[in-house]
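lol so apparently i was supposed to do this last week
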Amino acid sequence: MTYAKEFFDLQLQFAGRVSELGAIPLQTTLLDFTNLYVRFVGDRKFDGNSPVWTAYLAGMVRETDLCDWTYRFYRQRPHRIRPASVVETFGCFSYAIEHPDRIRLHFHNADEGRYGPLSEERSAARLSELTSLVNHVRSQHRTVRQVAGVSWLYNLPAYRRLFPECYVATAKVAANRFRNMPLWGQFLNRHGHIRKDAVALFTRRLNGQTSMDELAQCFPLQPLSVVASIEAFHEFYA
Ligand SMILES: CC(C)(COP(=O)(O)OP(=O)(O)OC[C@H]1O[C@@H](n2cnc3c(N)ncnc32)[C@H](O)[C@@H]1OP(=O)(O)O)[C@@H](O)C(=O)NCCC(=O)NCCS
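anyway here it is w/ coenzyme A bound
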């Protein structure tokens, strides 16, 4: 899926404001306070010397319109949805092995039907994907004992209902996720366009921000970190 230009404009706006507030070079805030590196490079190393990243920064010097350049650069890159660490995908869900005893769940919209991927109409399809995923983990990775996740999505009842209660009950705010989709994904809808209401609230809060303190409070939803035993998942989907 190709994300809309406004999604990138928003992140550039944030990086620019953080640069002013913290007296930090823009090149640094682009790396540390936006999801651009992940979108362009694809890995999670945040290597400021990566050839792709340095090519992007080099263009900033040449180009007059940063928003325009950023979006053109994005459009030229392969649009990876699946991080290299992902082991297997089941529809909208995938997982990575985080530790030998723990998997990490990921979500992206792979449902192109008429209803939203988190709608009531599609919840049976999501539950079936999660059931297959858990069965796959149990058969292929016998050392795995826990399932973990970090996402803004755990704020949404439509998402929470897909998981065992004991899993969502462990939700704790995950700090410092400025580089990641578990924070920035909240500004997108299923078509890759921005959610105007969330963006308007964010922009208002960002304009009122006077220091580097509590930057995360500009975001309408906080990313939540959750974890539970794989047994709880197995019982829930059985
Ligand atoms: C997750 C995603 C598909 C949701 O898109 P969507 O178009 O809102 O999809 P749905 O219509 O199925 O949304 C389900 C519900 O969540 C609500 N919702 C979605 N985003 C919301 C937000 N930012 N704030 C509040 N509610 C939100 C919707 O209003 C809807 O509720 P409703 O059924 O009561 O109207 C979309 O945000 C996305 O693709 N994001 C990028 C990927 C991402 O963030 N992945 C997670 C990375 S950890």
